[in-house]
Please model this.
Amino acid sequence: MIRTLSVCAGVALATSVASATFLGIELRTDPIVNASATSTINDGQQYHVLRMFAVFDSADEVLSVGQPDDITGFGVQASGGAFFQTPGPFGADTAPNSGFFAIPGAETLPYDTFVSLGITDSSGGDSTLLDGDFGFEDLSAGDSLDDFIRGGWANSDPTNTQGETIPSGGAFETFLGQFTITGMSSAILPGGPAMLVENNALDGELTVFVQIPGGGVTPFTVNFTSVPTPGATALFGIAGLTFSRRRRSA
Model:
């Protein structure tokens, strides 16, 4: 296990259940934002800006998020897909500072890929702590595209309100990160929060560590799984039909 999450998991073993029910992870994207990202990045690719939320049935607090070890984790599932990050000096792995948005060379910063606990703008301060092994990495034979997230992130000052949920649509949620990616075959499927998130963007898993009243945390592991594209589904149907005809003619 990575260091940050090992500490949290050890505390959780000696505690009771959390007060709120963790409903799962929800991914959201907006076609207007996607079009703006594609136009601003302007490299001939189409981009989808995904925002990730941990959703609960009542108020709660997320203390840390990450993968169970340094090998598993989550990344772009589409073949050839990748995370987009603004090149330095403005791009970073945590929430951007909106004060930089108008600076020449930082035009793509609003569409940066980053992780966070509860905030989308670091101009008012940011207590998101990255694990020592954290990073967006390339696992596709050195193609220089970031397609995997290694390590976890946490609230370095749990006495603040950064990881606390906010009311949203009859539930409560905490923002966990923004992931701008290319290589998706289609937009993500709409749907509510779940422990198994079927989508056309991410594969793998992560663990969300939630505050327990009186101290300690409870871990919840969420799995991402890809959904067959309409084209892949059609090809599968044709293959099945061919196989059926061959069996009947045999």
The radius of gyration is 20 Å.
